[in-house]
Amino acid sequence: MSDSLIERYRDRLPVEPSTPVVSLGEGGTPLLRAERLSERLGLELWLKFDGANPTGSFKDRGMTVAMSKAVEEGAEAVVCASTGNTAASAAAYAARAGLPAVVLQPAGAVALGKLSQALALGARLLEVRGTFDEALKAARELGRRGTHVLVNSLNPYRLEGQKTAAFEIVEELGRAPDVLALPYGGGGNTRAYALGFAEQGAGLPVIVAGEAWDRQSTLASAIRIAEPAHAAHVAEALTRTGGRIVSLSDEAILDLWRSLARDEGLFCEPASAAGLAAVAAGGVERGSLVVCVVTGHGLKDPETASRLSSPAVPVDPDPDEIAAAAAR
Q1: What is the DSSP string of 51-85?
Q2: Which one of 154, 203, 267, 296 has the fewest CB atoms closer than 10 angstroms to its CB?
Q3: Considering its fold, how many domains does the chain have in total?
């Protein structure tokens, strides 16, 4: 398999033979059968782990296409507003393309893992005194002025790249799932999956979108977006597929975040468990084939993982003491 997502799906993406491909080997992420959670929920449950992308989130799928087109069209710089994952992805692909990247982040709202990535990758990081929505408004204005290319999911090339996850799911399962569940922050990924499944003619899964009940202050920072930019398109996709939005407490999201880690060995950032939490909330017919999209790696938010887990137990290097401590 080619290392480039664009090369794998060139015939279904808006690229030309002359388009310079900016790639870090994205896509081709694991689709994992969740044996214990399937039994617990009475479903045939699969996990699409997009945390295995180069910068640790699904954003890389869209960024390879957006950055390749930006280079093709003569961009001199790129800009994005971000709660973290877009920042890391934009910084990485801009560095790969040799372009400056400006990242606008809402003050105090970005997890350490993502912040560290964007800084290490050389982005110009600006902390906006305001919300994500205000930062996005400013980024869009810079894009309109022509000084920077906007690489948020409002850039249509981002959605074109992200739709490829739907292609991969159908290729591996041999069909579309009955239900697709995923986190709902800005809504771009929900829109992209709907686009990808529709293009294949393999049938549309019912889309279940898990959002934080308190969007403005949820612990799940990746979906801490008060005003989803793609809300109208998400509503249309849900109507078309018979899907729904499930509003979740942080406790419900964290419960399934722990289950993914401890029952299935999959370490993700808390927001990535929102789709699974939406399924666990009920309303999915028993025995259904369900794919839950796990959007970001757990190392994106190490502080939360450390804070919510039991600390290490100090012991002397004595086998009897170690055995006793391990048994407690």
Answers
A1: GGSTTSBTHHHHHHHHHHHHHHTT-S-EEEE-SSH
A2: 203
A3: 2
d(CA 286, CA 63): 36
**Residue range 87-139, pLDDT digits in tens:** 999 999 999 999 999 999 888 767 777 788 989 999 999 999 988 889 999 99
To which residue do tokens 């957006």 refer?
66
The answer for residues whose C-beta is within 8 angstroms of residue 120's C-beta and 6 or more apart is none
Compute the residue count for the chain.
328
Mean confidence (pLDDT) of the chain: 94
DSSP state of 268: B
Does 139 lie in the same domain as 114? Answer: yes
CB 6 within 8 A of CB 13: yes
pLDDT of residue 1: 44
| 139 domain residue, yes or no | yes
Going by C-alpha positions, the residue among 288, 289, 260, 286 that lies closest to residue 273 is 260
11 and 76 assigned to the same domain: no
Domain carrying residue 123: 59-155
Backbone angles phi, psi at 100, to 5 degrees: -70, 145
pTM, full prediction = 0.93
